[in-house]
Amino acid sequence: MSSQDRPTSTFKSKIKSRLPCTLVVSIIGFIAFLIRIRPSNSVFLSNGFVRFGGNDPWYHMRTLNFLLENYPSRVFYNPMTNYPYGSYIHFGPLFDQMMAITSLLLGMGSPDQNLITTVGAYFPAVLGALTVIPVYYIGKYLGGHKTGILAAILIAFAPGQFLHRSVIGFTDHHVSETLFSTFFMMFFMLALISAKEKGLRFEHVITKNLDALKEPLIYSIMAGVMYSAYQLSWPGASLFLLITLVYAVIQYVLDNFRGESSDYLGIVGTVTFLVSSILILPFVHPEMGFSMYYYSWFHVVTALGALGIFEVLSFIEREFKKRNLKAYYLPLVIFGAFIFGLIAAKITVPSLYSLIINAPHSIFGIQTGGPSTIREVTSIFYPEGGFSFSRVYEYFTAPAFFASIAGMILLTANIVRKPRPEELLALVWGFLIFMAIYGQNRFAYYYSVNVAVMGAYLAGRFLELVKWGRLEESFGTNVKSLKDFPGFFKSVKIEQVFAVLVIFVVLVFPEYSSSMAQTTGTGGPNGPWIETCLWLQSNTPDPGMDYNAIYEAPEDGETFDYPETAYGVMSWWDYGHWIETIGHRMPNANPFQAGIGGRRGSIEDENQPGASTFFTAQSEEEATEVLEAVDPDPDKSGARYVISDIEMAALYDGKFLAMATWTLDSEGYYAQYQIEGNSQILPTMRYYNSMESRLHFLDGNGLKQYRLVHESWAGQSNEVAYKKIYNLFYGGNVSEEDSGYVKIFEYVKGANITGTAAPNETVKINTTILTNQGRTFEYSQSTTSDSEGRYKFTVPYSSEGPTSGETRFDTAPTGPYVVSYGNTTKEVRVNEEAVLNGEEVKV
């Protein structure tokens, strides 16, 4: 064989040796994809509706359609939500751009809506399956091919948050966060391994030694690209910057104690964050100042700051060696430099200093007050105010979770014995994400990667006990074709087969079983909510906004200039994106936690107007004051429609207490009572007096300016139980039946019915309301005439039906109002104009 043939032969042998692992990883990735598209029937409904999961996926589809409608311009400010202020969009641009480009390519430049929704639905499943690739390589470089394959299997089958956020229809950026952050760690790890093996020094940069620089620089550049991709998927990517810097400080100290150069680390870190700072710069919005929530100077400055930290640490480390200083002084010097940097930031850029100081608590701290009601930001170990492993078992399975802890302990022992940069990086990464899930369970979709890697690392070490390495060598040496397999199987030992079975039974099967149980559906708006939002779109007045137009943000300190026809829809923030995206109407509150109102500091603070203050208001007058105060224009109210559902109304197993918690005043809505010798917790009158209860359970009976205009069909709930308690303990007379799961009310001026009776006479007015579901209830009011016999009722229902251009309500009185006093009864008809304009109707 000639010398010219050897490189080709070597290349072919490398390709051939990689084919089995490539094939296995590809199969694992395909299985991961199949798992994630199992519940496709719950996304693509039989009636043609595509139901995306959760809340934010709907908004990503909204921003995707924005983008395709105005390509390549992307929306940054959206006045169609958080009415009357609008919301700046903090979502990263990359996730939407990837879907948009895919749609444009598949649609040959003109994708239709069916193609766009199909791409959007399948996209998270594709990204979730691709995560198998970096997980495999991380596992491989920690413990060989066996560890990589096991890690790939564990992440493919991983249940819980990672599966939930990568399943078909959950079109949210969280899966791209996981994919790109894992790719970042993979390339950063490869850069460290390569730079360490080549003994990379700063002198190699000066002398342009490409042999030493080429491979580490390529990996470092790719790490920077992936960090940028991660950052452009989620503005909070500084979490992994923190992980990298914590690792770097520990690595510098260890290298110094061992008398080794850390130049390799300084070069890798410098290149990585130089690349990332350059790539993120075009997406910065300078008007946001220093904000972690939006793309701002904070993201460029922190990347450049990380670059500077690597440079400073490298300089300090080299000075230590040059001056032959004691190694144990280095941690003190680094700590001093850190304090100096904080002081400098506080003096020069106080807002940046505040962000840096508060960032650890926002990530690792347990939330209180209103934010504690947001499920994804509560602690994984304290889900309902007490310690529990329930979410741990749900998100990871118990064997996988505890295997990851054991794997980290084993890795720590290995580092103490013989430290390697990639192992220390993996350990710091795993530990800090573990701390993050202590603060917020949402980071469980990150920790699923750590569980897979650390569980595989533990299992890989277990396989080493049964001489698995010899089996791999035998396979590589003796298996050249399919006919060699029988001979290879003869060399397999019984203890090796047993070890594999143990790993699959203990680690893999529980994950597989759990993931199968968790992919029976995808969540998202249920039938009543879909029907309600579609009704809202078709039967309420056009607010006068171009739905897919890109609007300029208002000048600083000013509010958006809405047309006179614009109005808001008041509901709890959970439903804001559904109202906007399905209903094409403007919610007051949304899942960006905008428009909630209430208090943030203490009960002494002013209760700001918003959804929480409206629905917990103790009278119609108080609720109306809130609604009017939402809009800064004194001539306009904050909302024209109010939407309630049974979950908002439910006290024990619903969202009512969450609304109250945002006001920091959640006491007194329930109390303990002794009933027939048994202690029971029951709702109090404070609960039944709330605007939410008045609307949903009492159908707005007796309210002057709120009328039920549409209800969905009834759903499974405890509504009857709440009504029975109201009737039994508080003298109510409500029909004990289930009503609409979702209800739409309209806020109107109300017609003023006036008349005369005897002085100080009790006067009543009532009518029977027939809903679109065929249900009837009584609407009534009572008042006392004044000393001259005059009385007045303000009523919200029209007995004459809707008018053109206004609400096409399908819930209305079955006949005229009946006014009664003494032995007198009179019928009164009220037209829609009187109700909308507050006109007088004389009896």
From TrEMBL:
Cofactor annotation: Mg(2+); Mn(2+)
Superkingdom of origin: Archaea
Principal localisation: membrane
Residue ranges of the TM segments: 21-37, 115-137, 149-167, 179-195, 239-257, 264-284, 296-316, 328-349, 395-416, 423-439
Record key words, sorted: Glycosyltransferase, Magnesium, Manganese, Membrane, Metal-binding, Transferase, Transmembrane, Transmembrane helix
Compartments where located: Cell membrane
Short name of one Pfam family: AglB_L1
Residue ranges occupied by any Oligosaccharyl transferase STT3 N-terminal domain in the UniProt entry: 43-303
Record-annotated AglB-like core domain positions: 529-649
Pathway terms, separated by semicolons: Protein modification; protein glycosylation
Enzyme Commission number(s) from the entry: 2.4.99.21
Cellular component per GO, a single term: plasma membrane
Keyword Membrane (UniProt): yes
Domain Archaeal glycosylation protein B peripheral: 750-841
Reactions catalysed: an archaeal dolichyl phosphooligosaccharide + [protein]-L-asparagine = an archaeal dolichyl phosphate + a glycoprotein with the oligosaccharide chain attached by N-beta-D-glycosyl linkage to a protein L-asparagine
Membrane topology category: Multi-pass membrane protein
GO MF terms, alphabetically ordered: metal ion binding; oligosaccharyl transferase activity
Family: Belongs to the STT3 family.
Name the record gives this protein: dolichyl-phosphooligosaccharide-protein glycotransferase
